[in-house]
Amino acid sequence: MCLAVPGKVMEIEERDGTRMATVDFGGVVKEVCLEYVPDLAVGEYAIVHVGFALQRLDEESARRTLALFEELGLLQEEFGDPWEAAAEAGQEAGQ
């Protein structure tokens, strides 16, 4: 399942001509492309889908949505368990 998830922009940098951000999704931190929302600033929230910020979001809406996703277990489903993914990758390499 793919979700559009709200996240808080923690850091912004330009990488190879592309505006990128480090975004915190309620404790899960990922790299996100900001090309669709070029004026997004550090400290603001955005809706993110498959690694692209799509729209600015107010903080209260973002916090409510993240709390609901966490309650429903959707953040874990969307981002997965990094230890589980590493274990699976190790098993596949050994096959």
UniProtKB/TrEMBL annotation:
The lineage of its organism: Bacteria, Bacillati, Actinomycetota, Actinomycetes, Kitasatosporales. Belongs to the HupF/HypC family. NCBIfam families: hypC_hupF. Gene3D superfamilies: 2.30.30.140. This is Hydrogenase assembly protein HypC. It comes from the Bacteria. It holds the Pfam family HupF_HypC.
